[in-house]
## 1
Amino acid sequence: MPETLLIIFDGDCGLCQAARRWAQQRDRQHRLSFVPYQGADLERLAPGLTAAQAARALYAIAPDGRRFRGARAVFETLRRLPGWWGLLGTLGVWTPISLLVEPCYRLVARHRARVSQWLGLTQCQLEPPAEPL
């Protein structure tokens, strides 16, 4: 697993920014690359991924093009970190665990502006971009 995982996140979200900083501090082998969806060329990075989709969930794009979203993207990210975090990620990518955690991920993602505010982080706006016609 030596190649870089591309993580597409909400660059305007305080919670997302804090999570990115946390992961980057632990990513000693530089296996993660973070790109905020705002202003990113999503069609080039992840063909078919829209800004509206990226506004609703975290996406991780593997070097071979496989796409992961939500809780699974979080676990794929953790899997590339050293120590216990990598072990947690390895366990979490197991489909039953990812499926069990996904509703919690969606709840936090839906209310991330409020969670950011409660944690004293930059508060984000959750108005997703309109889908193109």
## 2
Amino acid sequence: MTEEPASDHAAEGTPPGGPIGVIRGLFVSVLEAARTRLDLAAVEAEIFLLRTIQMLLWAFAAVACGLLALAFVVVAVVAALWDTHRMLGVLGGAGLFLVLMGLFGYIASRSFRSKPHMLAGTLEQLETDQHRVSGAP
């Protein structure tokens, strides 16, 4: 029956199961969770930025095609005052750009409507964490 003196524990520090070890483990867990959430937020911000750029490019394409169609309509009016079959080619070009404008505008509006809110996944994960901490199922 050998008993270690109390001074040995003081020299070694707090045993691993002591309150400081628990607090340290909790702090490390909180830091790891925060790091994971920040990584998730960064990825979601990047995806949001890429979708926004894609949407802007489609919108720009729609505007460009609309302006080109308008230019062809103006040329068509000029050509209407000219000789005979030039009008068919100009109106065909204007029709093509009008169809492209409609298609690009539809794609841009569809991507705008279907895009998720920025950081939606991060906020959802934080809400899940909050429920876990509060003990709610």
## 3
Amino acid sequence: MSHLSEKELQNLKEQLEKEAGEIESRAEVNKRSPEFGSDTETDFSEEADEAEEQSNQLGVQQALKERLADIELALDKMTRGEYGKCEKCGMDIEIEVLQINPESRLCKACKAV
């Protein structure tokens, strides 16, 4: 039995679903490759800038994928009735933690360690 009320669970679920939609939108925008200059140009600094931008986009893309995976896991746990339990100690995750970070996997005490 969850330590969260039905209303709290529903609010957290809506928050997770909204965040997932926003992340998917950001990921879609971030997938677009940066505009590379003409292949006939010999400006190596521009090419270096473009390569750095592409590297930055890959890093952001990976972070978005990881966050989306955490959200999907939290939603799956809700479906299974396992949401809100610390993965480390098994205790309830405080509602304050879940309201700030609804995909949290750890309680305050375990996060502090």
